[in-house]
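Thread: coenzyme A complex, take 2
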Amino acid sequence: MDHARERVGRLAIYPGTFDPLTNGHVSLIRRGCQIFDNVVVAVAADTPKTPLFSLDERVRMAEDVFAGHPSITVEPFTGLLVDYVERRGANVILRGLRAVSDFEYEFQLALMNRKLKRHIQTVFLMTDYQWLYISSTIIKAAASLGGDIKGLVPENIYRKLREKYGYPYPLGDDIDLGLGGPGGHGGKGGAGGPGGLAGVGSAGSAFGAGLGNGGFLPRSMGAGLSAEGDDALRNGCLDPDDDGYGGGTPPMAPTF
Ligand code: COA
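Output below.
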């Protein structure tokens, strides 16, 4: 595996099953990049879950999302997490906490990992509130019955989920074919500039579209705000000021 592109500096390992990666994970990784120089998204082969996607698929989907972001590496790992972290020359495990319900499991995991290797520290970041209620399982549950989970996962994963469950794309949905965008990454909002009309997002990678289409924003607003997707990258990492909504406009509260 080529680790040469990682800059020397603080390295955090962000492990998970990522079946599949969600925008909650993406948000966590983006924020991890504000603290660490490099973040490795470590996709577990050994997980108590029975994944829908193969290890290879989970890795490839995440790789597509972070293509063009040299500070973020995606790779699979087998065996004990702490052994992998040590092999990787790191001593920080990054994890997200969504709600109190996560705490007990995360506490157990962190303490067991600490028991196994005392020098490895687990660092927790709170998940942004707009992703509090999502998990890979609930997204799969909705997608499996044809529910539209657009905006909750990056665009490439949205397409994969629909394919996996045999649902065609909704009529009139503007699908990112990955053809546009200079340099092959970052979403350009097409006709829809910031605050402008809804545009066809010709994002070069799923990352711009996935973040730029923005969670709970109505599709028209999401497309307009995604115009800055290409600018979400600074210094080889994700723009710390980009909250995934194209900047400027605060995220809307989830509507149920
Ligand atoms: N926003 C939204 N959802 C989030 C999130 C965020 N920021 N962070 C986590 N989640 C969700 C995930 O989607 C996932 O949902 P799911 O349970 O429906 O699949 C859930 O929270 C937690 O998943 P994830 O963060 O992917 O971690 P995990 O619990 O699947 O991963 C490993 C566990 C891989 C870290 C653990 O099994 C492991 O270390 N395995 C290696 C073997 C090992 O060392 N075992 C001993 C451990 S002591």
